[in-house]
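Field guide to reading this record: the first block holds the primary sequence, the second block holds the structure written as discrete tokens, and the final block holds curator observations. Each block starts with its own label. This record concerns Sodium:proline symporter, catalogued under organism Salinicoccus sediminis.

BLOCK 1 — SEQUENCE
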Amino acid sequence: MYWYITYFILYFGAMFGVAAYYYFKIKTFEDYMISSWSTGFWKITGTIISTNAGAAVFIGWMGLGFTVGFSGYFKFALVAYFFSLLLVILFAKPLRRQKLFTLADLFTARFGGRTGMVPSLISALVYSVPTLALQLIGMSTVFNITLGWGLNTGLIVSTLLILAFSIMGGLPATIITDAVQALIIIFGLIILTATIVMHVGGLGELFANTPFEYLSPVSAEGVGDTLLYALSVGPFYLVWQSTWQRIFAAKDEKTALYAGITGHVIVAVVAVLPFLIGVSARQFVDLDMQQDLVFSYVTNELLPAPVAGIIFVALLAALMTGATSFNLQGASNLTRDLYQVMVNPGATNERMLLVSRVSVVIITVLGTGAAAFITNINDAYRWALMVNGVILVFPFLAIMFWRRVTKKGVITSMLASLVFILVYPFLGLPFDQALAGYVFSLVVVVAVSLLTKHGESEVVRTAMRHRLVKDIQDVEAKE
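BLOCK 2 — STRUCTURE
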């Protein structure tokens, strides 16, 4: 235990030292939420790696590898990074050119009025809150395993740590610590992977003793199941606001593009490791073990405390970076898209900075409450991705490519798709939920747009080729 306490004190001491530095340096809302659109290549690369390696990677994907094998990598991890790379390669430059704060800003810039409220609330409540909850659950589990704290105690302490760091340091502290934490995360995963592979006799023995269904890129249920699972998670990454924030925070279009590509390629390779660990664990772990417990069991079982402490610090680094990114993402939605655009368009920078920090508190408290209802990390994360993807992907693509799309078409599609995807499980229909949801969203946005006219507040241009507004601060909440 003393090794763990020492490591944790050093880690959190360094984190809060950086946060304290930026607390006195940050003077504006732009500094706090988007790092003043001035972040360089390596910082963007590092924060992409760290943000993509949260509870889902360390805990969820190890458990997925343990239960289904390497097909989990191909139907979840690889498809996530494929769509993330599509976002960066196709849209990093045109999005950075818009010089926005959030995903919802794009909707407001294109359609005017309160259009951004719908994607803002969806992004904040349906994605940021539950995914923040996953990180808090992961942190409380670490404290339970290493220090013997109760899960509720660990949850409260985790909430306070995340709150303090996010309120003080904002996105600048998150990005600079992410760059360092990316190295810690990769180092920790490599140590754990090497240890468990050697424990089972090396890669040759592992592959020889593992049934083919756990080595195959296709799940035991067949190609159709693998593709439908991929559909439920992959498209969301086109509208993942954490990646959008990194694009906006980059100092220029070139940095947004090349740092985005570099970060996602690295994390796509690193993401193989948790699945390899999960498959290896099948050689000596009780196959009835709950999948979210595989990481902690393997780490405690195979490693001495001084080395295990490094692994747990790596996990905490992944969880911290995920949690701060997600609560800042949700807070930016509340501050920018709801408060500034709808409530107080003339808010001073000092007021916006204060509201940003209050919004961080709101999102973090909601995440803590949501943590009480989550029983499976991987399933909860997949649900959040599917719901957000179904609601937002086709409206986003329409804004980028289709001049004919209308405000009524987009709003109707988002609201109808939200209702559709939530009630679909109760309809008893034989079709896959994600597939049905995406088809429904596409049909509605196209049909309603063709049946309606452009509103007076709309900027009738495609965001792929044009900058929609000269300054997003000039967009007002007008009907």
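BLOCK 3 — OBSERVATIONS
The CA atoms of residues 47 and 425 lie 36 Å apart.
The mean pLDDT is 87.
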